[in-house]
Specification:
Radius of gyration: 15 Å
Order of helices and strands: EHEHHEHHEHEH
Number of helices: 7
Helix content: 40-55%
Strand content: 5-15%
Distance between the termini: 26 Å
């Protein structure tokens, strides 16, 4: 593995907290991004009638999430500058814990081996913007528990947690870039 994971900048948190909107703003600003696995997997599984859905087979869904995140991590090495991720391998541990499922050794190993920059931006629960849809069926309570679960995993893995402000996307974008020491591309 290369040693350039310091340019792999993580955004994580619970569902419906503005991560995707921020990732899209970073992409529009010219930065490389790696989208969240969950929505993509749900869309694909629904389109093919697959079982790897959070409301059908949570363990299989977690395996596909891990696979997606590892593929995104490897693909990011081809990018010349910073890459912003919406979730990563540690989120899979948080998801499994949230669901009360065992965390297989290979999932723990992946979270320890496939690292991101030391500072991890966390999107706290934001009830005012939270909304359910066809792919996000969680309640606000489950979104808040997801936030607690995934952020605790990042803390356990030694990452520094940096909460995002509950602010418009432009302000969040400036906050992330300033905190990461970056200028718009």
């Amino acid at each position: 593995m290369q040693n350039d994971f310091d340019r792999f900048i993580m955004l994580t948190g619970g569902p419906g907290s503005g991560k995707t909107t921020l990732i899209e703003a970073l992409k529009a600003a010219g930065f490389a991004t790696a989208p969240e696995a969950g929505r993509g997997i749900i869309r694909d599984q629904v389109s093919v009638g697959g079982p790897a859905l959070p409301w059908q087979d949570r363990a299989l869904f977690a395996e596909l999430m891990l696979s997606w995140e590892l593929r995104s991590w490897h693909a990011a090495h081809a990018e010349p500058g910073p890459v912003f991720f919406a979730r990563g391998a540690p989120d899979t541990i948080g998801y499994l814990r949230l669901c009360g499922l065992p965390v297989p050794d290979h999932v723990t190993s992946a979270a320890e081996k496939f690292r991101y920059a030391r500072r991890v931006f966390i999107a706290p629960p934001w009830p005012e913007i939270f909304a359910q849809d066809e792919e996000r069926k969680q309640t606000l309570d489950e979104a808040e528990r997801t936030f607690q679960s995934v952020t605790s995993v990042y803390a356990e893995l030694g990452y520094e947690l940096v909460p995002l402000p509950l602010a418009p996307v432009e302000e969040r974008l400036r906050f992330v870039l300033d905190t990461a020491g970056l200028t718009q591309a």
